[in-house]
Amino acid sequence: MNKFLISTVALTLLTGSASAADFGVITQDAPAGYIAPTSDWTGFYAGVFGGVGGGSPDLTMTIPGGGPVLEFFGNSSGGLAGVQVGADYQIGDFVLGAVTDIAVSNIEARGGAAVPIVFGYESPLNYLGTVRGRIGFLPTDNLLAYVHGGLAYGQTSPDVTVPPPAGADLDPVNRVGYTIGAGFEYKLTDNISVQTEYAYTNLGNASVSYTPFGGFPAGVDIKESYDFHTVKAGVNFRF
User: Fold this and answer.
1) Considering the domain boundaries, does residue 33 fall inside one?
2) 50 in any annotated domain
3) What is the pLDDT of residues 157-170, one digit of tens each?
């Protein structure tokens, strides 16, 4: 009897101790892994850029009364620098956007014609502006690959060197055309991105008005074709 009683008491004490130990254990779920927030391209931005450009513009002079057609072929080269503002909207891995920019330029065409006498031709591009749309794809959260295109406008100041005593004072030409290209933009932070961009720009075949002097005849039809390629790099500040 005593042995039974002692065994019963011991078993009770052991069971109580185990229960007390159970009540003292604090359980906690393992913390979830940290997920870094993805980059969001939706919003406005403003930036600065610079680059180089060049092409093969030409100027044609048609002498009235069945006279000869003089073609002035040239090569252009130089740089440009400007500012831009734009907005993007992200849809999944795609980004739709619009951007406008304006740049000063020292891209200049130089050339000439040698029939029937030697003529010189030069035409600097004074400024260049664009209004473009763009569509891009995100290979990674911070890298945007895109194509772009839209309206381009600018002003050239053609000049033809005619042997004396003939000459003509050509007026600056305000021009409108188009531009297309592609580029990459990379986010360094949520608010700063860098980009590099290629564009082909065609400002059309525009008529050039002029004031003749000396022996230069009136009524000459002068047209200038101006197209070129540019490569630019820039920094954008996003907000």
Assistant:
1) no
2) yes
3) 998 887 776 677 88
Say if residue 218 is exposed, middle or buried (CB neighbours under 10 Å; 0-12, 13-18, 19+): exposed
Q: Tens digits of per-residue pLDDT, 72-98?
A: 888 999 999 999 999 999 999 999 999
Structure tokens, 151: 């309206």
Q: Note if the bond before 31 is cis, omega within 30 degrees.
A: no
Give the CATH number of the domain where residue 232 resides: 2.40.160.20
Pairing verdict, β 210-213 and 173-187: unpaired
Closest CA to 80 of 179, 146, 148: 179
Interatomic CA distance for residues 29 and 105, integer angstroms: 64
Q: Does the pTM of the predicted model rise above 0.90?
A: no
Query: For residue 70, which of 238, 220, 199, 226 has the smallest C-alpha distance?
Result: 220
Q: Is 21 exposed, middle or buried (0-12, 13-18, 19+ CB in 10 A)?
A: exposed
Q: Tens digits of per-residue pLDDT, 2-58?
A: 444 344 434 343 344 444 444 444 555 545 554 444 579 999 999 999 999 999 999
- Which residue range forms the structural domain that includes residue 108? 43-238
102 Cβ neighbours under 8 A, 6+ residues apart: 82, 83, 84, 127, 128, 129
On whether residue 31 sits in a domain, the answer given is: no
How is residue 153 written in tokens?
A: 């406008």
Rg of the chain taking only CA atoms, in angstroms: 36
